[in-house]
Automatic annotation (TrEMBL):
Coiled-coil residues: none
Residues covered by the MacB-like periplasmic core domain: 19-236, 497-696
Positions of the UniProt region annotated as Disordered: 57-78, 568-588
Name of protein: Membrane protein
Residue intervals of the ABC3 transporter permease C-terminal domain: 272-392, 731-846
UniProt biased composition (Polar residues): 69-78
Main location: membrane
Keywords of this entry: Cell membrane, Membrane, Transmembrane, Transmembrane helix
Length: 854
């Protein structure tokens, strides 16, 4: 009970310091809890959707995968004759055929895309009775003919669509023009899909290319018959040659596919939360170390009157327990708010998430509180252990904890060894011949060098702080020298405070180097290799009508078709490879300048010829003149002569095996030939601007495709990587905020620790302004110390990562110096900001009271 009272008294005696540490715990726990609530809510949303849309039993083609379209561009389908066989199965109440296609684009009368924009699919299909389980018609009626279409209410609201408006659905077989005759609303939350419905005959003809076929058959079980029994009966009726699933199995399969995507989001966000926790550990260690140091005399008195080491240790840990509980409980509550905020952001981006589905599992607050408490108590263990080791006489004689020179030397040696091991691992990664092996060594090098820098931080603090001070603080005269001396007074504290900032900035620097190098490498590769003036591509394969529009565009010298084909290759050594081949027009040799290590690429576009990449050739001993057997999926098997071996030291089309369009047509039936993945175009000499304008105009009716010249392509690549980096920087901001709190806490406790010293300096003439400046300069030095270590470490990581990317063809190392310098200067402002409150409080101290402080 005495330990509890002592802990409570000390806890509330330092409310401000504890509050800052509690905020660090709160933010970290909030991020973890918010991530779990957010992903659980998304899972709930999708679970409800899948449960409401699944039929009792569903029949699909055996190899069909939800959301995937075969290379032909048409969905896999079933003969309509199966419908009657399914209906006749025992235990079946009813069965109906469904049609669904996701490789479509829906545009309004202004050719604006009204489909999903958040990564969710745009779906076209036929209206069935099964749809009534998840939707209800709120306006108009279901489509009854080829000129009528029904749209979901979310899409109608988002794009201002109403009854009578015309929509054009761009499908592989052609454009479907129809007027909206009905609007249907979801009974459950629609995560963001856009859906258009046609009558069955129109859907079959326009989406599947022929009537009398369905993509799936929906079976409803009779009363009292289980889904499993109906599945068994339907399987027997259809000879078991199709994929047949119960409602639960269909929902589980859909849930698994979505779950893989959600897991990536969850674990990525939890990773950044872990970084924030790591930074928070330094804050908590510093807080309790300084509080223990300031209570040394008090601890000595406790030991002198009979308190054991265990009781002193326990007293500090109980304070940490209070801190962890308070911070964690508040963090769990804040996490729910973060989850709701994320849902609002996702809704604004086009992915609808309703707070009605907000899911807070019991495990979430439990995990949040346990994690926060355990991390806080573990972080406080070292200061608590140090407090317990203070002898009564030493504590009564000194005002601070006794220095442990041996421990400091051991720490320095351990830090240097870890740093050296990390540097060796990074060097090994940078000289690796295989990206997989190098990635493992890179991970080891990052972890070891980070731990090494953290451990050796106090040793580095002395030298680095002196260098920074010599450059920045000498201009401030005596005040600058005092700030330097204060930063050097306790190297362990300065090292821990700087390390908290170092972690976040190291990751920022590493990712900046990697991102900048990727952009520089890709743009350099474009300049060197791409001869085409224009590139046309989108999220879907290019429909024939868009290709025809491009072929008719004036001012173009040629248009190159580019198709990816599913095929299995058998090399002369008997090895099989199912990564496919690429079919293109001979002009592709002009549009992409691929150097060869043997043979001529132009010869590879002859009939019954092909090229292979140098990696494939080396692995299987393939030479020019050898024959490779190519089994085309859905077509014949060909024996093709290797006419060229292309150099795989590139980031574009690395490993591609080229054949001509003519060769493809020889071995694939017309209905199995896929649409183009990309189209390339070359303008006539001197007509580049006219061709660019004409091409954009020709493809205006097809907004799913982008027309880019090389400048556009480079800028889009830069923007995409920039957006990704900005997202990562935003997530790392949490760790930076916690690090700033650490600087604030360190300075605040340092001011209290030096109260008498500050009073004496004020008494001999130091002004309040000079005092505040001294504290601000000390803060700037600590922040720049952490920034210098972090940026240096991060550039080392990024440089090594670029060496691994060079194995994939990204050969240019580009250090983004403006970003690095900007972050370094920004760190100085972070230091100034962190010092505002401690400097203000120090300036308000009463001189006489400060001098009288023990």
């Amino acid at each position: 009970m005495t330990v509890l009272k002592t802990s409570l008294r000390n806890f509330f005696a330092h409310k401000g310091r504890m509050a800052l540490s509690a905020v660090a715990v709160l933010l970290s726990v909030a991020f973890v809890s918010g991530t779990l609530v957010f992903t659980d809510t998304m899972n709930t949303t999708f679970d409800k959707l899948f449960a409401s849309t699944s039929s009792d039993v569903t029949v699909t083609p055996k190899d069909a995968k939800d959301g995937e379209t075969p290379q032909s561009g048409l969905p896999q389908s079933l003969p309509a004759s199966l419908l009657e066989r399914a209906r006749s199965a025992e235990g079946v109440k009813s069965a109906e055929g469904g049609v669904s296609a996701t490789n479509v684009t829906v545009v309004d009368s202004r050719d604006d895309n009204v489909g999903a924009s958040s990564g969710a699919p745009t779906i076209a299909g036929n209206w069935t009775k099964n749809e009534l389980k998840s939707m209800e018609i709120t306006s108009g009626h279901a489509p009854r003919g080829p000129t009528e279409v029904m749209v979901d209410a979310d899409t109608a609201d988002k794009h201002g669509l109403k009854l009578g408006d015309e929509l054009r659905t761009i499908a592989q077989t052609g454009d479907i023009r129809a007027r909206i005759v009905g609007i249907a609303a979801f009974k459950v939350t629609n995560p963001g899909a856009a859906i258009v419905y046609f009558d069955t005959a129109t859907a079959q003809r326009e989406l599947l290319g022929e009537t009398g076929r369905y993509t799936h058959i929906l079976v409803t079980a009779a009363a009292g018959v289980s889904d499993a029994q109906v599945k068994e009966n339907v399987t027997r009726a259809l000879d078991g040659t199709y994929k047949i699933q119960t409602a639960a199995e269909t929902a589980d399969e859909n849930r698994k596919e979505v779950g893989e995507f959600l897991d990536v989001i969850k674990y990525a966000m939890l990773g950044f939360a872990g970084i924030a926790f790591l930074v928070g550990i330094f804050l908590i260690i510093n807080t309790f170390s300084m509080l223990v140091a300031q209570r040394t005399r008090e601890i000595g008195l406790m030991r002198a009157i009979g308190s054991s080491r265990r009781q002193v240790n326990r007293s500090v840990l109980v304070e940490a327990l209070f801190l962890g509980v308070v911070g964690s409980v508040l963090g769990v509550a804040a996490g729910v708010g973060i989850a709701i905020g994320l849902m609002k952001v996702m809704t604004a981006a086009g992915m609808n998430l309703s707070t009605d589905d907000l899911t807070v599992k019991t495990t979430t607050p439990v995990a949040g509180v346990i994690l926060g408490v355990v991390v806080t108590v573990l972080a406080a263990y070292l200061p608590a252990r140090r407090a317990g080791k203070i002898s009564p006489m030493a504590a009564l004689r000194d005002a601070g904890t006794p220095a442990d020179g041996k421990a400091g030397r051991t720490r320095a040696v351990a830090g240097l060894l870890l740093t050296g091991a990390g540097a060796l691992a990074l060097y090994t990664a940078g000289t690796a011949d295989q990206a997989g092996d190098g990635a493992l060594m890179l991970g080891a090098g990052v972890v070891l060098s980070l731990i090494g820098f953290v451990v050796v931080g106090p040793l580095l603090a002395g030298g680095v702080v002196r260098v920074i001070s010599a450059v920045l603080l000498r201009a401030f005269g005596p005040v600058g020298r005092m700030a330097e001396r204060n930063a050097l007074r306790n190297p362990r504290r300065t090292g821990a405070t700087g390390a908290a900032l170092m972690i976040g900035l190291a990751l920022v620097a590493c990712l900046s180097v990697v991102g900048s190098s990727m952009v520089a490498s890709a743009t350099g590769e474009l300049d060197k290799s791409v001869g085409a003036d224009f590139i046309v591509q989108g999220n879907q394969r290019i429909v024939p009508q868009a290709e025809r529009a491009m072929q008719k565009t004036p001012h173009l010298e040629h248009v190159t078709r580019y198709k990816t084909l599913d095929a299995t290759l058998t090399s002369p050594d008997g090895a099989k490879d199912d990564s496919g081949v690429t079919a293109a027009d001979p002009t592709y040799a002009q549009d992409l300048r691929r150097p060869t290590t043997a043979g001529s690429l132009a010869d590879a576009y002859a009939t019954d010829a092909m090229s292979v990449g140098s990696d494939y050739a080396d692995q299987h001993g393939v030479r020019v003149g050898d024959t490779v057997t190519v089994a085309f999926e859905g077509g014949k098997t060909a024996k093709l002569k290797v006419a060229a071996i292309t150099d795989d030291d590139t980031a574009i089309d690395q490993g591609a095996r080229y054949i001509s369009i003519t060769t493809m047509q020889k071995y694939l039936p017309a209905d199995r030939i896929p649409p183009n993945a990309i189209l390339f175009a070359k303008a006539r000499d001197g007509q580049e601007e006219q061709a660019y304008a004409a091409l954009k105009k020709a493809l205006d009716p097809y907004p799913q495709y982008q027309v880019r010249d090389q400048t556009d392509y480079k800028q889009e690549l830069k923007d995409q990587i920039g957006q990704l980096l900005n997202l990562v920087y935003g997530l790392l901001a949490l760790a930076i905020i916690v690090a700033v709190l650490g600087v604030v806490n360190t300075l605040a406790l340092s001011v209290v620790e030096r109260t008498r010293e500050i009073g004496l300096m004020r008494a001999i003439g130091l002004s309040r302004r000079q005092l505040r400046r001294m504290i601000r300069l000390e803060s700037v030095v600590i922040a720049l110390f952490g920034a210098l270590l972090g940026l240096g470490l991060g550039m080392g990581w990024g440089t090594t990562a670029q060496k691994l990317l060079a194995l994939e063809g990204l050969n240019v190392l580009d250090i983004p110096w403006p970003t690095i310098i900007g972050v370094f200067i920004g760190s100085a402002f972070v230091g100034l900001f962190a010092a505002l409150i401690p400097a203000f409080r120090a300036g308000r101290m009463n001189v006489l009271n400060a001098i009288a402080t023990e």
